[in-house]
Amino acid sequence: MAQDLAPLRTVASPPTSARHRGGSVRLALLGGALLVIGLWWQDTTTMAGPGGTVTAAGRLAGLIATYLVLVQILLMSRVPWFERAVGFDRLAAWHRGLGTNTVLLIVAHVVLISQGYGQAAHQNVVASGWHIVFNYPDMFQALAAVALFGLVAWVSARTMRARMSYEAWYWLHLSTYVAIALSFEHQITTGADFVGHSFNRLLWIALYAGVAGSVLVFRLGTPVRAWFVHRMVVDRVVVEGPGVVSVWIRGRRLDELGAQAGHFLLWRFVTPGHMWSAHPYSLSATPRDRHLRITVKAAGDHSRSLARLHHGTPVLAEGPFGHFTGDRRELPRTLLIAGGSGIGPVRALAEEFLASTRPPAGSVVLIYRASRPADLVLRHELDALTQQYGLVVHYLVGRRSDIGYDPLDARSLAKLVPDIRGRDCYVCGPPGMTHRVLSSLSRLKVAPRQVHAEEFAL
Amino acid sequence: MSDDLQARLARRSTVRRAVGFTAMSAVIVLSVLGRSVTEPTPRSALGATELAQPVGGGGAASAPAGAAPTSAVPAKPKHKARSTPPQTAAVKTPAARTSHPASTSAAAPQTTAAPRTTAAPRTTTAPRTTVAPPPKTTAPVTVSRTVTGAAYDVSYGTVQLRVTFKGHQIVDITALSLPQGGRSGDISARAEPQLRREALAAQSANINAVSGASYTSAGYAKSLQSAIDKAGA
User: Fold this and answer.
1) Candidates A34, A46, A435, partner chain B, best to mutate (most B CBs within 10 A)
2) Nearest CA to CA, how far is B192 from chain A (Å)?
3) Mind telling me how many Å the CA of B200 is from chain A's nearest CA?
4) pLDDT of residue B90
5) Which DSSP symbol is given to A221?
6) Given an 8 Å threshold on Cβ–Cβ distance, is B154 in contact with A196?
7) Interface ipTM
8) Are A139 and A82 in contact (CB under 8 A)?
């Protein structure tokens, strides 16, 4: 696990509430796909004759692939409606889930069109493909686009991704934009659905323009505007424990961000080595008007180098994102379970639950899992919360191989927190731990809507 | 344990993607099947009015081609009106130097030409029989005239034909313009000889569309029809 906190590792079985998120967005995207099929349906004039059906299938594959490419861009373009309805984590998961199939559809498009045209011209598929590339307009660009899409898919495959630095992967991934630009022209100049069909062409161009617009507005415009409003800079860096640092960020009118405890933002520190990539880190303290804090465990190169940030380094932030927040709470009592750097958002949540309503002692229980005592961080802050508000903290320390059992299995959890089914459970930790806790909770029959887990490996 | 979990997650997402891909393939296959089932085939090229529009719009030019297949004998006055207006009516008479009365053949055959265009079902032989008896004794078969048909916009390009008549017989068809470039060019190259063969055999514009080239076929039939109308053949 030498990687950074890449937004691509998801937890195995998200709680049901998360699984059903974003029905409206799903419906809208499905409607768009039907529209694309409808477009193809109405302007397909004839499929009789050699290669007719194969060509028609190839065209449909190309249209759907293009639609999916645009959808994937849109999913990642931070459209506020998507973020609210689905959430950044699941959008990223959808984006990734669609990737493989999109590239397969592109390949299918190339093969089917070559085959279909070949059948019509009594050529084999290779000769026909060759003929198309060398004789049809804009086909060299389209071929280059296929190669780029293939490259992006290859470096995003699990095995390759694990071997690359986040930055290298990120830059290769960005070349998708180039591929999209390269593949656009051949659709308009040779696509049977668009040549001579000015309405379809207009519709298609509008689709591209809409996606490009939302990328420009939400991925570029919003952060730039946020910089001018909030002027966030690094205030100070605090070492919390071995490999764990807290970064305090100072800014103006930060309450206008609408950030809550449990939210995360995409942070970009404007300094060499950080400038070109944004990383998701959760807030580890209740956000205030002039200060935000993140607490990061050194999991990769990026998080390690955070310790060397200087006072005054400008910070560009996108967000806040996430559904791991207090307003999702169903019941007055809560159980918070943290592991690794998951303690950051969990500590922020505990503070929020306690400070806002000052519930009776024992209302908030926090379980903090760590392999070694040295890994426990922010301990003095948890102790302060205990003294001030009556927070109950259970530290579960030790490797499972050493202590001989899993302190997070259903039985141990029920013994530790007998009223667990009467509580909202917030879980944040490494994927393995989160997965185990979620299955324990479902074994204990905690209602799914009471279970909240961030799907990031934080 | 983490590796084990990772592997399990990987397997699960692979399965999910395989399901997704199967679903997408199914959608494509079903769409193609559905589309091919609902498809009207075969198509008369001349009847596909919506696929070819006269260049420069205008109702006058579209009238002849559109009306041709349905117009019966009483359509005679229409024919007359038609033979004059077309803007591209470049009626060339290269054979005029032979001093044969081309003028008579231009006017006279109107009466006999009318039944030709009635040929509702294309049976290749039926229309020919009506043309066969040359009405005028003066016009020998050797007089060949070249008539340029109206240009038709077929979405992917323009179709315009030059038709050579020998008496009332269509002896040659040359395409002055066909959709060009890329796929359209390939389709034109494939469809043109086939359409020409069909038209020469049918001796009329009542030809079937070449599959996969319905637009070009429609434009071809209409430009041919307009040339026939102009020639009054």
Assistant:
1) A46
2) 13
3) 22
4) 40
5) I
6) yes
7) 0.76
8) no
